[in-house]
Design brief:
The chain is α+β, with helices and mostly antiparallel strands. The chain has 15 helices and 16 strands. The strands form 3 sheets. It has an 8-stranded mixed β-sheet. The mean pLDDT is about 95. Bound molecules: histidyl-adenosine monophosphate. Histidyl-adenosine monophosphate binds near residues 123, 130, 286, 304 and 308.
């Protein structure tokens, strides 16, 4: 009786060998840029106390209200698979004393979990690269972070992303603005959709973020937070814009940009593409100067962002020509035990002599015919053929698997030198 196949959980994908080269290319490029700006990697657990996220992201956000993978463990502890990295990073920083009179420039990479409705570019397990900088209050660090993201796109060859920026001001300015917004939307209550009616009492700023086309004209005419900023936030925002202008990074001020997590203040920003439909935000973040204190640490200014790596992969898939990563050589070994033993020794010595070499040795035995088939399937350029005759003469045969060429014999003592030339071509 055939057993029922076990499937991956909906919205959680395998990344298969055919796709990993592009992931590795992206990660490698991002690492290089991060290093060049002096950022250091931090690794946090995937599982945290549920309270960490409800206290930081906000009780009445989509993430906390309906998207967290939460469960009670065997000790009756309430745990959650992290929906994002900022809260964990703050927790780790406080717990390990990273914020005590220190400036920190940190990054992390890894899976995040949100129980959203899966579609192209939106998954239940997805990967983020996140960056967080702590201990700096000025707009200079905001600019540094945004300039670094611009450099990511430049290095990856992406030139179609739009930078949107906004300022959410101080929490006092936001509270005053919130009242104005509630007044405005209350007088237009009949035009609000169900979601917005609910948000009117809980989180009215999020109404501005609504994607409902029927709400757009109402939202466009709503009072704007940018017109109600406190003086310091206004100056901060101007300082940021001046640096971006000076460096020549283009941006659009989007007064409706409020972000879906509660911890932000002052600068918020997103990089958006038109190429991925509704899931067009590639990278998003902002300042969160009160979060460290809110989680129990000493007051520490902070700013950061995270980018969705699946979305980057979708954007780059059709654009990138990755350099060849097929094996150079498939080593065929047919004969008695000595052939295999000597074959393995030879393969090891080649790997030592030529660190760039990509070589697969045949495993699982088989006739010449079978091994040639495997060699062909491996996409290797050359087959090295080792049999008893060759071995007795201290030689190996080499055959080009991709071009019609005569098979040649090479002496084992000169093999590494010969291959050095071949793998360069
Ligand atoms: P976020 O806007 O929730 O921010 O997520 C950042 C990015 O993660 C999004 O712009 C998107 O590219 C990607 N992303 C989010 N959800 C999904 C999903 N379900 N499937 C695929 N990709 C997704 C944060 O997470 C903040 N922690 C960013 C931050 C860091 N702010 C300050 N520091």
């Amino acid at each position: 009786m055939s057993k029922k196949k076990i499937q991956a959980i909906r919205g959680m994908n395998d990344i298969l060998p055919a796709q990993t080269p592009i992931w590795q290319h992206i990660e490698h490029t991002l690492h290089q840029v991060l290093e060049s700006y002096g950022y250091q990697e931090i690794r946090m657990p995937i599982l945290e106390a549920t309270e960490l996220f409800s206290r930081s992201i906000g009780e009445v956000t989509d993430i906390v209200e309906k998207e967290m993978f939460s469960f009670v463990d065997r000790n009756s502890d309430k745990l959650t698979l992290r929906p994002e990295g900022t809260a964990s990073c703050v927790r780790a920083g406080i717990q390990n004393g990273l914020f005590y009179n220190q400036i920190q420039r940190l990054w992390y990479i890894g899976p995040m979990f949100r129980h959203e409705r899966p579609q192209k570019g939106r998954y239940r397990q997805f990967n983020q690269l996140g960056v967080e900088a702590y201990g700096l209050t000025g707009a200079d660090i905001d600019a540094e972070i945004i300039l670094m993201t611009a450099r990511f796109w430049q290095k990856l060859g992406l030139d179609n992303l739009e930078l949107q920026i906004n300022s959410l001001g101080s929490s006092e300015a936001r509270a005053a603005y919130r009242d104005k917004l509630v007044d405005y939307f209350s007088t237009h209550n009949d035009q609000l959709d169900e979601d917005s009616k609910r948000r009117l009492n809980t989180n009215p700023l999020r109404i501005l973020d609504s994607k409902n086309p029927e709400m757009q004209s109402l939202i466009q005419s709503a009072p704007q937070l940018l017109d109600h900023l406190d003086q310091e936030s206004q100056t901060h925002f101007n300082d940021l814009k001046n640096i971006l202008d000076q460096v020549g990074v283009k941006y659009r001020i989007n007064p409706q940009l409020v972000r879906g997590l509660d911890y932000y203040n002052r600068t918020v920003f997103e990089w958006v593409t038109q190429e991925l439909g509704a899931q067009g935000t590639i990278c998003a973040g902002g300042r969160y100067d009160t979060l460290v204190e809110q989680i129990g640490g000493r007051s520490t200014p902070a700013i950061g962002f995270a980018m969705g790596l699946e979305r980057l992969v979708l954007l780059l898939e059709s654009k990138l020509q990755l350099s060849d990563i097929n094996p150079h050589i498939y080593m065929i070994m047919v004969g008695n035990e000595t052939v295999q033993q000597q074959g393995f020794a030879l393969a090891e010595s080649l790997r030592t002599a030529l660190p760039e070499l990509r070589l697969i040795t045949n495993c699982g035995g088989g006739s010449f015919k079978v091994q040639f088939k495997r060699a062909d399937k491996s996409a290797a350029k050359f087959a090295l053929i080792l049999g008893e005759d060759e071995l007795n003469k201290q030689q190996v045969a080499i055959k080009n698997l991709r071009k019609k060429q005569e098979q040649k014999l090479l002496s084992i003592s000169e093999l590494a030198d010969n291959l050095k030339q071949l793998i360069k071509e």
